[in-house]
Write the structure tokens for this entry.
Amino acid sequence: MNLLGTIGFSAGMQSKQQQRRVLKKTRSPIRVVVFFLAPALIVYLAFVAYPVVKIFRLCLFRWRGITRGTQEFIGFGNFVKLIHDPVFWRAFVNNVVLFLFVVVVSVCVALFFAYIIARRIKGSMFYRATWLFPNMLGDVIVASIWLFIYHPTIGMLNYFLSLIGIDIGATPWLGQSSTALIAVTIPMIWKFAGLYIILFLAAIQEIPQSFLDAARIDGATRWQEFFHVILPLIRPTIAVAIVFLMWNSFSVIFTYVKLLTEGGPYRSTEVLPTYIYQVGFKYHEFGYGSAISVATFIFIFALAALVLRMLMERLMRGEKGF
């Protein structure tokens, strides 16, 4: 009995030691992961999470941004002011128009040229590189290039129009309320289109050749082939492109508006990011600027959720149809 007890005790000790070794092995990778994630997590909490929480708090105060003691709690007073602010609604409408124009035109242009290049025309590799080149440039560089192109007297746009017989004089494209907003969107489309041409081109080239051959045997024209065969098959890629374009448009809109027009003329190109900047850093109304930021966040979140829901519903219907 003593011998059996001793054997059992030693077996129990060995099993416990094995369990400890297993736990030590499983804990060590976790410690390594935590060690490497800690710097990024600290930076994220300090420069992203904390400012977001701070903005949600400041939107309930009136604060000039000088000292903490001057903060005055006003509840939802900033949001009441926002509702009755015509400049906010002007910026909101401009934001929606600019966003829709950039997304729709970028997708249409990218689809058109991707289909043309996919037909293996002569010089297709050159066209791929040419369209992708603007995407490699920084937003400040792109805005500076188009600032020169739009120049009323020495700009390339007015000079080119005069060469083809459209002499409109020294038209200030960025200085007229009727043309300024569209003029701001063109550089963004020029920068974004190349990346999505490559994305759609890859999707089109993944379509089985038998599908296209069957459509041609049935007598489908090029346009029928595009709209009834290619377009439904690359619908998931288009959905991804729209989501990315939404993010890109909202992330760079401040740079283009700030450098090209600064919200003018007469606030015809004012958008929510530039108005937040003016309210916070020019007028020193940090409480009201935080309220506009919160409203912008809610708008973007609601829009993204709506678009994703619509795209997912269409994708599900499309999957059932094939």
